[in-house]
Design goal:
about 250 residues, alpha/beta, 7-stranded mixed beta sheet, two-stranded antiparallel sheet, globular
């Protein structure tokens, strides 16, 4: 495939600090094979943070950054300077939790991730963004199995939610982790498990922010109510598509 000139400019700027004398032939070969630009560069900006991608977690999307910014603004309003706890579930690169930590010095974040090879990446990203590691924990496990008896003020998650029958672009299928994308034939396998367990892992008055597939957004909202949320709403992303759930618990 032909690499767009703007991708090459971004590569030189972000990977080599604008040094056009660097030999980028190996990088361009990777791009020609369809590897995502973010992996070739090795990191991606996310709400003012530098998120390394060396372990090849799911690349954070603009839609996730959009609702994370909404989440941060809400947390500032809700908690002010009061300490609070947040669980970044299905953490991947840790982008959501790191953005929260960077913006709110009163936050403590637990990262829960299924794939243990992403643990050093999250740790590296915490360090790269000058965040006090004492405010973080990184745990490995299948969803809430990582935190079986714990409760948090807030859970934020971008879980796998793509139906297994859906066709995705080859650059995604061939390079990004399938376990972070697909979730059963309807895309709801992980989300249903998260909604079934959230009430037991939230402190009184707790809240859940969850990214979902636009096709099943209303079904996700109904599942939240069925599983103990006192209120739940689906919110649009920056493109006007129903993209993320915000639900509140007793």
């Amino acid at each position: 495939m032909t690499v767009p000139p703007e991708d090459i400019r971004a590569l030189v700027c972000d990977k080599y600090d604008g040094d056009s004398s660097v030999d980028t032939s190996a990088d361009i070969a990777r791009l020609e094979q369809g590897e995502p630009l973010a992996y070739v560069i090795g990191w991606i900006p996310f709400h003012g943070c530098r998120i390394g991608l060396s372990s090849h977690p799911l690349i954070p999307r603009a839609e996730t950054e959009f609702w994370t910014e909404k989440l941060i603004a809400h947390l500032v309003e809700r908690f002010g300077d009061t300490p609070f706890t947040l669980l970044d579930l299905c953490a991947g690169s840790g982008a959501i939790g790191i953005a929260v930590l960077k913006s709110l010095p009163n936050a403590s974040v637990t990262f829960a991730e299924l794939i243990d090879t992403h643990v050093p990446q999250i740790r590296e990203n915490v360090h790269a963004n000058d965040i006090d590691a004492e405010r973080t924990r990184i745990l490995v496990g299948d969803l809430f199995n990582a935190v079986p008896h714990e409760r948090f003020d807030v859970i934020a998650t971008n879980p796998p939610y793509v139906p297994s029958v859906r066709t995705l672009d080859a650059s995604v299928i061939d390079h990004e982790p399938a376990e972070a994308l697909f979730s059963g034939s309807d895309g709801l396998l992980h989300i249903q498990r998260i909604l079934e367990g959230s009430a037991a892992h939230l402190l009184p008055g707790g809240e859940l922010w969850l990214e979902c597939d636009i096709v099943h957004a209303e079904e996700v909202r109904a599942l939240a109510i069925t599983n103990g949320a006192r209120s739940a709403a689906i919110n649009d992303d920056q493109y006007g598509r129903p993209r993320y759930l915000v639900s509140y618990y007793p």
